[in-house]
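ok, trying the design again with the full structure, not the truncated one.
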């Protein structure tokens, strides 16, 4: 029987990694009772926690999400489809809509619709190489080396996901599309695993 919930997928990946629940909770910096609730389907992790879980388990975040219904090698997500996952557990946090879901996808695609005043969380990093594209509004992408990029509609920035970064939405909110490529050497160097990813 294949796993059909985030919790079942986390439990299976934890078992394959040979980690106890307590050890995984410590690596991800969540409580063991919370991780138990996730594995038993009584709680869902935020995107930040999902990426930390994936990093600790050595799998892409999409491997911890149930497969979407597909027709062979084609995956279709309708305008109202895709799993909505909050960026963080903090009040006023935006949500991301997962457009590619399930293990085996070398590309993660997430849409963010950020209302005025909503947050996109703190600093993040993870495996792969990412491109952030602005559909509406504006966002500033800040890298931990002090560089920042102000983006308006039609603008994009690409960098190794391993570079710690954060996104600061403009005052009127924004709509963003994030693509993260996994399993290949990034054009700007080899990404290294780190903490989490929005």
């Amino acid at each position: 029987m294949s796993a059909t919930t985030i919790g079942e997928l986390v439990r299976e990946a934890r078992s394959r990694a040979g980690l106890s629940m307590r050890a995984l909770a410590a690596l991800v910096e969540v409580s063991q009772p919370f991780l138990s609730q996730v594995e038993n389907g009584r709680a869902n992790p935020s995107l930040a926690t999902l990426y930390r879980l994936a990093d600790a388990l050595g799998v892409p975040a999409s491997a911890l999400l149930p497969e979407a219904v597909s027709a062979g090698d084609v995956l279709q997500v309708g305008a109202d489809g895709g799993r909505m996952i909050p960026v963080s557990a903090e009040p006023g946090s935006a949500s991301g809509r997962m457009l590619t879901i399930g293990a085996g996808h070398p590309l993660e695609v997430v849409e963010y619709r950020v209302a005025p005043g909503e947050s996109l969380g703190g600093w993040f990093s993870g495996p792969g190489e990412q491109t952030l594209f602005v559909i509406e509004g504006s966002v500033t992408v800040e890298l931990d080396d002090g560089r920042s990029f102000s983006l308006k509609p039609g603008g994009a920035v690409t960098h190794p996901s391993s570079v710690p970064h954060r996104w600061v939405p403009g005052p009127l909110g924004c709509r963003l599309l994030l693509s993260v490529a996994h399993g290949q050497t990034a054009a700007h160097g080899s990404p290294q695993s780190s903490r989490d990813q929005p």
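Keeping the full-length input from now on. Residues 70-181 form a domain with the Jelly Rolls fold (CATH 2.60.120.10).
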